[in-house]
Amino acid sequence: MDMIELRFADGVNVGDMTLPQVQHYGEKLRDAGIGVSAVGSPLGKVRLDSDLDAHMEQVKKICEFANILSTDNVRVFSFYGSEGTPIRSSKNQVIDALGRMLDI
């Protein structure tokens, strides 16, 4: 095995890791000759009526982690609709939220 998608380590989701934890795991993987093909993040796995500004801070953090882990790939989801709102009617909100993520 020479590549992994880092999603969890020691029971901690990559989205909940601290910078020192990611640096530690990145170093251990590099020392073992294993690269990171993608960060298996929970990005986009939130409702559209949640605090998207806070979620964008999580996007920044995960992007920093991807740089530390030497990968350009981050797994994302495409958001959940607001309570009681069919996701089809939220298409523009989803596109806008994904666009904000891309800008970061």
Description:
With 104 residues, the chain is of the alpha+beta class. The mean pLDDT is 93. The protein has a two-stranded parallel ribbon with strand order 1-4. It has helices at residues 19-31, 52-68, 91-103, and strands spanning 3-6, 8-9, 12-13, 35-39.
Could you list some keywords that capture this structure?
104 residues; alpha+beta; two-stranded parallel sheet; two-stranded antiparallel sheet; 3 helices; 12% strand
Structural class: alpha+beta
How much of the sequence lies in strands comes to 5-15%
Largest sheet: 2 strands, parallel
User: In angstroms, what is the radius of gyration?
Assistant: 15 Å
What string gives the helices and strands in order?
EEEHEHH
Q: Which strand order spans the largest sheet, edge to edge or round the barrel? A: 1-4
Tally of individual helices: 3
Report the average pLDDT across residues.
93
Straight-line N-to-C gap: 31 Å
Helix content, binned percent: 40-55%
Spatial shape: elongated
As residue ranges, the low-confidence spans are none
How many DSSP E strands? 4
